[in-house]
Amino acid sequence: MLKYMCTFLRHCFPLLIAGSVCGTGFFGTPRLAAQTRTADTKPQPDVLILIDDEKVVGHFAGSNGASLSFKSDLLGDLTADWSKVKELHVQGQYAVIGKAVIIRPHTDVSKIPQGVLEVTGQTIVVSPAGGGAAQTLAVGDAAQVLDRDTFQNEVEPPHASPFQAWTGTTTVGGSLVQATQQSRTVTAGLNLVRAIPLEAYLQPRNRTTFNFAVSDGRILQPNTPTIKTEIVHADAERDEYLDRSHVFAFGQLAYDHNFSQGLTLQQNYAGGIGWTAIKKANETLDVKGSIGYIHQQFSNLGQNQSLLASNFGEALLHKFDGGIALTQQLTVTPTWNNLNAWLASANAALTIPVYKRFGFTISALDSYLHNPSPGFRKNSFQATMGLTYSLK
């Protein structure tokens, strides 16, 4: 019996190996043909050809104004000016939004070019997937080029969870000195934004922001009272844009604790009207005014008071080349039932990308309180540096 089994394996085993190499199983099953059919269904890559005839293979990620984004299989994420592009051949479906086009949710977008793209000689040709006449426009007339599914979701947005679509940064910094004096300082911040819709070319609907910042420091020295620095700030705001305009109504709240000014807790609740004066892909400027209620609690209880106040301010976001971002805010708050209790604040932060989502942030915060507790200065300034992680 053993003799027959050895004879069987000696004759059949080579056939099994040959079948695997040639693409057939033991019974001649054409596996190679099946694998070929599977490979044929794999999406073909996009091809970008620059004016120097350099060819880049990968995936076209979209365009925002004068430049396009391309994910190369070998080189990673690339950004190129349209003026440097000779040809672009893509396989997916895209939508092209002209510079003069304003799109709002649930707008009829039948006239927006959608389909397969071919770019040659600074001209974009869009061929509809279902057939029909191709549409042509100059590269310079295209404000946005993006994936068709993303475009459809923005025009007919699905109902998103309140915990989705948040973007922002978190920053942490600190220092430690161990000598005759012991100095310890910790700073941290969290800045979140949820803007609906996400795309800049669409009419804004609403925006929610949340900011938190803390700075805590201690200086210890033998036979000397501890010197403490303790500043905490938290605020939140909800903006609702009026139909077909850059005007929005908003409600806001803010809480502040500043040991350096003798301020135990300040509560600020307000509502008002704002205007987005500038809204671009790389820059946003808001100006706003409100009226509200402020309650201040000081370390000197005799100074506690409630105030009727207004808030007038502006907020700027500017994105530079290379992913560098500048944020700046200024707020002045006059108090109407006690004109001597007015306050103001200003802050600015510059974030520089370092590696992937990590960056380095330099920030400054100036807080002015016209009526601090006796013995405390009116002005409180802090400058911090730290490591930043972008949430998205």
Low-confidence stretches: 1-6, 11-40
Structural class, from helix and strand content? Answer: mainly beta
Proportion of residues in extended strands: over 45%
Number of domains: 2
The largest pleated sheet is described as:
12 strands, antiparallel, barrel
Mean of all residue-level pLDDT scores = 84
CA radius of gyration is 31 Å
Shape: elongated
The number of distinct helices, counting runs of at least 4 residues, comes to 3
- Please tell me the CATH architecture of the largest domain by its name: Beta Barrel
Intertermini distance? 69 Å
| Helix percent band | under 10%
**In which order are the strands of the major sheet placed?**
11-12-13-14-15-16-17-18-19-20-21-22
Model description:
It is built from three helices and 22 strands. The chain has a twelve-stranded antiparallel β-barrel with strand order 11-12-13-14-15-16-17-18-19-20-21-22. A six-stranded antiparallel beta barrel has the order 1-2-10-6-7-5. The model is unreliable at 1-6 and 11-40 (pLDDT under 50). The longest helix has 21 residues, at 2-22. It folds into two domains: 46-155, no CATH class; 167-390, Porin (Beta Barrel). The chain has helices at residues 2-22, 31-40, 148-155, and strands at 46-50, 55-64, 67-72, 76-81, 85-89, 94-98, 114-120, 123-127, 135-138, 142-147, 167-178, 182-196, 206-221, 224-241, 247-258, 263-279, 283-298, 305-319, 325-333, 343-355, 358-369, 379-390. With 392 residues, it is mainly beta. Helices cover 10% and strands 58% of the residues.
